[in-house]
Specification:
The structure is a homodimer. The longest helix of chain A has 27 residues. In chain A, the strands form three sheets. In chain A, strands 3-6-2-1-9-11-12-10 form an eight-stranded mixed β-sheet, with helices on both faces. The first copy, chain A, has two domains: 173 residues, Acetylglutamate kinase-like (Carbamate kinase, 3-Layer(aba) Sandwich), CATH 3.40.1160; 85 residues, Carbamate kinase (3-Layer(aba) Sandwich), CATH 3.40.1160. In chain A, helix 3 runs antiparallel to helix 4 and helix 7 runs antiparallel to helix 8. Chain A starts with 15 loop residues before the first strand and ends with a strand. Chain A is of the alpha/beta class. In chain A, a hairpin with a 3-residue loop joins strand 7 and strand 8. At the A-B interface, helix 4, strand 3 and helix 5 of A face helix 4, strand 3 and helix 5 of B.
């Protein structure tokens, strides 16, 4: 902690929160070219984040890549490793694209008054066979200490085995949450939470509002017994991953106004998983 | 080194070169707003870098911030430390601006076929009272191993004492050169090299083409004996800094076509300092 900053008040003491914004929230995910999400959506998300920061807690924001990076990574195959010289250029170009997205997202947050500082995970991350092996979290802790809001994002990163693999926002968020002992991870995307079945296909599907040790068995039974094996199998795995991870988490639909702010504030919204 | 990449040929073995591009080369430094250098200049610089990479050596490019970052850093005072909440936002905004510049410079290099991957130094750097204390160089070494061209740039960074200070390209370049045992640092900006006096004021000023242990005393005497005390004092200090640093370096004017490529290739251009 920096002595000269005492007057700013170290917000860190009120606990650390991690907000993961899915690629569908910050970009037009359906676009084959890099395309930002609508202006109104990005402004509204930024306002909710600003309002949460005003509460005085520490916050890390992590966003996905959506239509930035993903299409190029897939078409060039760099997510499966580097084998040609053209893939070296595609690796660089993918990094450039996701940096550009983060510059844009940071711009919205900064204009809303949030000290959102882009932090490029791949400047220190080392992957191994597609898994994050190490990443510098010291600077992120330091930035939180002085009241900044580190803004991380999915990136192509050096991989010890393959030359390159994708370090996704979904991996960065829990890594930081664990390393920095976050109180809560909010996963905001385009789904309302975990349902007993696929709500798009099954009208009897209901939202599971809370998963705790007490109802975990029942929830798993409900998800695995669903007629929509693929979806519910995925949902069961997701619930178990979040449960076993050990940090309280919440899955909310960021397209619904106010959801992110409510989830960060601990209000009842989406699916909350309390290990 | 990645086994799967053996077929790409590891360029690293031919030695490492560091190219520092001054802010005057990549931006319009006279602009009060962030403004990129002219398209033709950036294309020509990129082509020279591409041609050097084709020689098969490893290269790190580091650029200054010029009209990106600098004006905001100065007007907000973040280069002298963080004391207010507004400065937190200015810190974030300055980072955003320099990232935007690096995205643009990377874009030119990538379009020329150079695998130039932006690497944000402040994602791992810790400063102390304005001096670089530590920075992760492992990923940069790893990227070089697979044939990438790491692209670093001046950034506002966390400072243990002041909250924030500026980590300039002029500090990043020698730090990396020493850590990764570079053969040569080329400093390209808007000056032709080191002169015996200020060539804008003194018509008898001549370029000092080579500084070695043999003529160092003579060069210093010439610089310190000049009638232009301020300028020559600065030049003498610069020569001594580069000489004492221990890595061969070359100061060239990047505005003259071909200079950067010639300097990287070891041809006679500008001022070469051989410790």
């Amino acid at each position: 902690m920096v002595a000269a900053l005492g007057r700013l008040g170290v917000v860190w003491m009120k606990g650390l929160y991690v907000l993961k914004l899915g690629g569908s929230l910050v970009t037009d995910k359906s676009s084959a070219e890099p395309k930002l999400a609508p202006d109104a959506l990005l402004k509204r998300l930024s306002a909710e984040i600003r309002d949460f920061c005003a509460d005085g807690a520490s916050l890390i924001v992590v966003h996905g890549a959506g239509s930035y990076g993903h299409p190029l990574a897939k078409s060039s195959g760099i997510h499966e490793g580097i084998r040609t010289k053209d893939q070296l250029v595609a690796f660089a170009e993918t990094q450039k694209q996701v940096n550009e997205l983060a510059v844009n997202v940071a711009g919205y947050l900064i204009r809303a008054g949030v000290p959102a500082m882009p932090v490029q995970a791949s400047a220190s991350a080392v992957m191994n066979s597609g898994k994050l092996e190490k990443m510098d979290v010291d600077v992120i802790r330091d930035l939180l200490d002085i009241g900044m809001v580190p803004l991380l994002y999915g990136v192509p990163a050096y991989d010890r085995t393959n030359g390159c693999s994708i370090l996704s926002g979904d991996e960065i968020a829990p890594y930081l949450a664990r390393a920095l002992q976050a109180k809560l991870i909010v996963h905001a995307s385009d789904t309302d939470g975990i349902f007993t079945a696929d709500p798009r296909k099954d009208k009897s599907a209901t939202l599971i509002e809370l998963v705790t040790r007490d109802n975990l068995g029942e929830v798993r039974k409900s998800l695995s017994g669903s007629s929509h094996v693929d979806v519910s199998g995925g949902a069961e795995r997701k619930v178990m991953e979040l449960f076993n991870f050990g940090v309280e988490s919440c899955i909310v639909n960021g397209f619904t106004e106010g959801n992110i702010l409510r989830a960060l504030r601990g209000e009842r919204v989406g699916t909350r998983i309390v290990p």
